[in-house]
Amino acid sequence: MKKILFGLLVGLGLGAGAMAWLKRAPAPEVAAHGGAGAKEAVEAKGAGVRLTKEQLAHAGLTLAAPTTAKLAPEVRGYGRVLDPTPLVASTAEIATAQAALTLSEKEFARVETLNGQDQNASGQALEQAAAARQRDRIALDAARARLVLAWGTTLAKRGELARLIQAVVGGEAALVRIDLPPGETPGSAPATARVGGLAAGGPLHEAEVLGVAPTADAQTQGASYLALWRAATLPPGAALRASVPTGAAAEAVLLVPRAALVQHDGSIFVYVQTGELTFVRRLVETGREQEAGVVVTAGLEIKDRIVTAGAQHLLSTELQAAGGGES
After folding, report:
1. Nearest to 51, CA basis, from 318, 325, 270
2. Could you give all domains of the chain from N- to C-terminal order, each with its CATH number?
């Protein structure tokens, strides 16, 4: 019995000693991404990465400060490419009604002339011609009213409507509808907007705003516009992203290259250099995309030096060091 108790005490003592040694032992260094036997220390809380000089030399990173630009504020919205078939049918109806009215007006003038020449045409024939002319006038007015109700006054009264329709039917342009959130109506009527496909990061193209849409969207209940997108490549029914100028004065903004942005856990980050070999992953908020870069609305200052090429490599390195994967 004494031997058993002695063995237990010895075992407990050895276990306690081992635990104390483990607590004092330093944590193992993390292997660097892409180098056999290479080491790198990652900043605490997984918010950045520290490289050796050799790793920095081989990482191919490019650093730069954000650039500035002056841009007019915009409202973000959504839209869709419209089917031009109803517009084509409506304009064809107007053309048909106009042709009928032209014919009935000529017939009325002929009968009226004959009626005035010694009753070569009866009064009844003159009345019938007048009624036909009035009927065709009403039909033309109704066709024009339907066009206005369906497509708005600006588009309906556009002088080059036939040419516009020809461009849309020929695939050279597209009619689009833009819907904005409630309470986000621009201060003045916009002349242009920017539209593009729903794909994240895809380009937005300039579109000519034709006027206010004649009907409200049943879901958004905000301001809506019709526009002509001359660089359209999407078919009718395609959903769109859209940006519409608010009419306010241009504001100074920060721009960064798209390659500087990385996504992780549903958020967008940039890597900011905080030391010669250290880079912190900083959360940012982004706005619209320009040819010169992406607008950053929060999270950066003009004095920051950010990674403009190689940011994705740093994210992979950081996540692998932390024992996770990219997401």
Report:
1. 318
2. 30-72+251-321 (2.40.420.20), 74-83+161-245 (2.40.30.170), 85-156 (1.10.287)
For residue 220, the 8-state DSSP code is T
Distances, alpha carbon 187 to alpha carbons 71, 176, 206, in Å:
16, 21, 19
- Rounded to 5 degrees, φ, ψ at 32 are -75, 155
Chain centroid to Cα 4, Å, comes to 76
Lowest model confidence (mean pLDDT) among 2-6, 105-109, 120-124: 2-6
**Do residues 198 and 239 make contact, with C-beta atoms less than 8 angstroms apart?**
yes
**DSSP label at 322?**
T
State the DSSP H helix or E strand holding residue 89, giving kind and residue range, or none if neither.
helix 85-116
What does the DSSP 8-state code read for residue 66?
P
Instruction: Give the span between the Cα atoms of 79 and 205, in whole angstroms.
Output: 13
pTM across the whole model: 0.60
Q: Whole-angstrom Cα distance, residue 198 to residue 241?
A: 6
